[in-house]
Specification:
mainly alpha, 3-stranded antiparallel sheet, globular, 50% helix, DNA polymerase, domain 1, hpI Integrase, Chain A, two-stranded antiparallel sheet, single chain
């Protein structure tokens, strides 16, 4: 059975992922591509996701006896049907959106092979087919947009990001038994920062006198990733800063580092808080409140609240640290039906003046 395995890259010691076959041997052609992504600076989470996507693809190839070099578009369409109905752990099936992510990873893998000069049936069909998106080798010198694309796509339903109501946010905050955890949720809710950005915060990043927090991309010993390439600033409320002060007074202890969020209970005491601790925290909060909760849902909630309050999308883009406004608009412009009703009532009132 083809599976994904976590490794430490020998030359850097950083965490990464590889694909191994049923005999526990590395799948070289896939792992060379995954190492390429790692060396480009892609996050471990991205490499892991690509590893799992390509693992599913390789499992299909092995099961059906296909050669990845000779695979045709018709056979790739067979893969779509196969991966859609393949049951995963837990008994659920992959959504169309997930299938498109898998196809995008496969497309990127084949583009990488094309750049290396490896001849494949998939790349021949993309290169010479009608309305082909193929671009010449040096096209990237004169154009800035990414050439990565899915070989084929399935039609997926656009789902709205799941957001919390104010009562649900308060319920999650009240379920926190430690000031550190309450501060973490409060900052996620008020700033819209990613969990990796929160875990990478240093005390020097927080300016309590004006409520400003610097989001700084940097290497973190706990593996936390800011994702955004450029630093930016977010502002939070005075109560949030007061909560930060209480955390420093009542829970924070002397540490050999400057990280804000630290593991003070169990495990490696005094070490910077890691993703695994956050996952465990949210699992406990979900059990206490009966709510399905993830850190990223706070980001969705914050962005949606800003748009509902009338913020221009350009300001929301800057506050979330998105590189392109299309990301902000494409993700958060689809508000709930009640939002549309409120906006129409406002329009009628303004029109009747």
């Amino acid at each position: 059975m083809v599976r994904v395995q976590k490794i430490r890259v020998p030359d850097t010691g950083h965490l990464s992922w590889i694909v191994v076959d049923g005999e526990h041997l590395p799948v070289t052609v896939l792992n060379e591509y995954l190492l390429y992504l790692h060396r480009l600076g892609r996050s471990p989470n991205t490499v892991r996701a690509y590893a799992h996507h390509l693992q599913a693809f390789w499992e299909f190839l092995v099961e059906h006896g296909h050669d990845w070099r000779r695979l045709k578009l018709t056979q790739l369409a067979e893969f779509v049907s196969w991966v859609r109905h393949a049951t995963r752990a837990g008994g659920d099936h992959r959504s169309d959106a997930t299938i498109n992510l898998i196809l995008a990873a496969i497309g990127s893998f084949y583009e990488y092979q094309d750049r290396l000069g490896v001849e494949t049936a998939i790349n021949r069909s993309r290169r010479y087919g009608a309305k082909s998106p193929y671009k010449p080798f040096l096209h990237h010198i004169s154009r800035t947009q990414s050439l990565r694309h899915a070989v084929i796509r399935v039609r997926a339903i656009k789902r709205l990001p799941r957001v919390f109501s104010p009562a649900e946010v308060q319920s999650l905050l009240d379920a926190c038994t430690r000031l550190r955890d309450r501060l973490l949720l409060c900052l996620l809710q008020e700033s819209g920062m990613r969990i990796g950005q929160a875990l990478g915060l240093r005390h020097a990043d927080i300016r309590s006198y004006d409520g400003a927090i610097d989001i700084v991309p940097r290497a973190n010993s706990n593996g936390a990733l800011a994702k955004s390439r450029s630093p930016y600033v977010v502002h939070v409320s005075k109560p949030a800063m007061a909560l930060y002060a209480n955390y420093l007074v009542h829970e924070y202890r002397e540490a050999s580092h400057d990280y804000v969020f630290v593991n003070w209970w169990g495990g490696q005491v005094g070490s910077p808080m890691r993703y695994a601790t956050v996952i465990d925290l949210f699992r406990q909060l979900s059990k206490r409140t009966g709510l399905k909760a993830t850190p990223h849902m706070f980001r969705h909630t914050h962005a949606t609240d800003l748009l509902r309050a009338g913020w221009d999308a350009a300001y929301v883009q800057r506050r979330l640290g998105h590189a392109h406004i299309q990301t902000t608009v494409g993700t958060y412009a689809h508000l709930q039906p009640e939002d549309m009703g409120d906006m129409f009532e406002r329009y009628q009132k303004e029109r009747g003046r």
